[in-house]
Design goal:
The structure holds 2 protein chains of 2 kinds. Chain A is an all-beta fold. Helices cover about 0% and strands about 55% of the residues of chain A. Chain B is an all-beta fold. Chain B is built from no helices and 12 strands. In chain B, strands 2, 5, 6, 10, 11 and 12 form a 6-stranded mixed beta sheet that branches. A 4-stranded antiparallel beta sheet of chain B has the order 3-9-8-7, with no helix packed on it. A two-stranded antiparallel sheet of chain B has the order 1-4. The chains are: A mainly beta, B mainly beta. The interface between A and B is medium-sized, with 30 and 25 residues.
């Protein structure tokens, strides 16, 4: 158990819908990351937050948005869902968000878009 | 641009045999390198990481990795594999200026262990 929690574990929805994935970082960690794991794209970095502010952006679609709240939990919002958005979405957290930090990964949320 | 290549998609070894998983990276500066393991239905767990210093890095579960700058490689090794090591292994490169730390992952190597 990494100490990072993600809810829900599974999510099944239809194309065109909007969903919210939630992540609670490890106690004491200030930085949160989101990754997408799909069969065709592999593991891809989406976005990083540090203490409520966006720090780095990767291959995140405009239909996707994220935020980190004052209590440090984070939410990833996915809208206008397409079949290709079906994937495992991981949240990770680290202490400072710096390049030598260890990122601790949550168990993931499996999203299925029908 | 940063990239990571794991040439072997699947590897099968017998229990007790030695293991080497290959990883090659492309990165302009000194890379920060990581190996993660993902068991079925689980998140990723860090096995070991390299930033600087001794090029042979020891990790958890008896794994080690060697950084070879001349070959742009960071191969993972284990002298004797256990059935519980069956999982998917990911090499990643990270780091960057400005204090961020996005990891670029390889495609992964799926390890099967025969009894």
């Amino acid at each position: 158990d990494s100490g990072v929690t993600q809810t829900p574990k599974h999510l099944i929805t239809a194309t065109g819908q909007r969903v919210t994935l939630r992540c609670s970082p490890r106690s004491g960690d200030l930085s949160v990351y989101w990754y997408q794991q799909s069969l065709d794209q592999g593991l891809q970095f989406l976005i990083q937050y540090y203490n409520g502010e966006e720090r780095a952006k990767g291959n995140i679609l405009e239909r996707f948005s994220a935020q980190q709240f004052p209590d440090l939990h984070s939410e990833l919002n996915l809208s206008s869902l397409e079949l290709g958005d079906s994937a495992l979405y991981f949240c990770a957290s680290s202490v400072t968000g710096g390049p030598t930090d260890t990122q601790y990964f949550g168990p993931g949320t499996r999203l299925t878009v029908l | 641009a940063q990239s990571v290549t794991q040439p072997d998609i699947h590897i099968t070894v017998s229990e007790g045999a030695s293991l080497e998983l290959r990883c090659n990276y492309s990165y302009g500066a000194t890379p920060y390198l990581f190996w993660y393991v993902q068991s079925p239905g689980q998140g990723l767990q860090l096995l070991l990481k390299y930033f600087s210093g001794d090029t042979l890095v020891q990790g958890i579960k008896g794994f080690e990795a060697e950084f070879k700058r001349s070959q742009s490689s960071f191969n993972l090794r284990k002298p004797s594999v256990h059935w519980s090591d069956a999982a998917e292994y990911f090499c990643a490169v990270g780091g960057g200026s400005g204090g961020y730390n996005k990891l670029i992952f390889g495609a992964g190597t799926r390890l099967a262990v025969h009894p």
